[in-house]
Amino acid sequence: MVLPTLCQTAFIVLRQIEPILVMEQLGSTLFDTALQMVVRDRSANASYPDISREDSQQKAMSNFYMTYRLIILVTPILPALLLARLGDRGWRRAPIVVPLSGYLLSRLALLLVVVFRLPLEVMFGAAAVFGLSGGFCAYWPGVMALASIGSTATDRSKVMMRVELLYGIAGLVGSLVSGHLFQLYSSSLDHGTILLIVSTLLHLLSLIHSIVMLQVKQVPNREPEENRHLLYHTSRNDAVEVPAGINLLNVALLFAAAVLYDVAVGGAIEILGVFVLKQPLSWSATQVGYGNAAGFTIFLTSFLGVIMLRRYVSDVMLVLIGMVSFATGIYFMSFVTATYMFYLARSLNLFALIPMPTIRSLLSQQVPASSCGTTLTCLQLALKFAGLAYIPAFTKIYQRTLDWFPGFVFTLSSIFTVLGMIPISIVGCRSPQRRQYERIPVD
Prior knowledge:
The chain has helices spanning 2-14, 18-42, 53-74, 77-88, 94-115, 122-132, 135-149, 156-183, 193-212, 248-275, 285-309, 315-333, 339-347, 355-364, 372-400, 408-430, and strands spanning 230-234, 435-439. By secondary structure, it is an all-alpha fold. A two-stranded antiparallel sheet has the order 1-2. The chain starts with a helix and ends with a strand.
């Protein structure tokens, strides 16, 4: 009896989105480390007039990443909207399956670049293919939409944060081993080949799994008839009231907070990968993997923060706590000159990943379930449009400040984080006092 029960439980788990999420993130973290090291090696001989060789390498790397990420930002806009509409019309797996095919092709492209020593510019074409498949812009809202419709409104923020936790744990494991896998090579295989083979296989498995195994399950929002006899009183515990209509001002404020925070986080992370490869840090592939793992550890601490704090504070306060955590840590990052200081700065970012899933949870409660996928995709597109501005801006600011203050971009990120606290604070002031419901007996 025990074995059939375990097999049935395992089958149910395998039909959820989580196994796909884990395999995709493992493959992506391996790919990220490989791309970072390949770009560094290909930029070693870069030369620009009037600047040193190391600064020339930094400029070549940052220029590559700027172009690469701008392509990824621009190309998925229309495909992501189309996939979101398909998802809201009942094709919930479309925003998962199609982007995963783009993930697979882009990882395969970098493998070909390494094996056949193709020009690094081939990755610009891979980025375009990745974007035309919808990319992360379609994939992540699709994941969040499945998590949203598969949970009750009361538990939605916790479920979404659990998805973020699995995403972070997979990234942590992948980052820890990525640097070591990159070092594996033989007389016939260059550095990074084995790493990219594993990454490509993981994405292939996640794509096959999403086509064959993934199940879409929707939890009804209606309460049973007997639960409608309720009496409420004010409390600090969570409760969710269905709004009479969409509060457009709250939606706009949530979008503004998300965009400002994404500018802060995205701008800092855009430069951080290049920053750690220059002196005085000058990280190796293994250290890069460990540094990425430190970033993914924040997924775990942020999840634990949500579990511990959500009983005592509102969702808005959770967002503010996360923003303060990021602003403090990234400001300290401005003055990092040694590896231990880097980890100290990252340790201050314990709750930095709380804001975005919590904002998505708040947004999902402002719209009906039939528009949830479209709303979350519109938010993701807004973040993409913001990236079109902040990626080149942060890149050029970093290149201009390399001589006198390379960490200036991190100070700028902390300022944007503080600005993002303003609209979310207004949402908190506008929100009604939360209520807890208790059952009363019905004769």
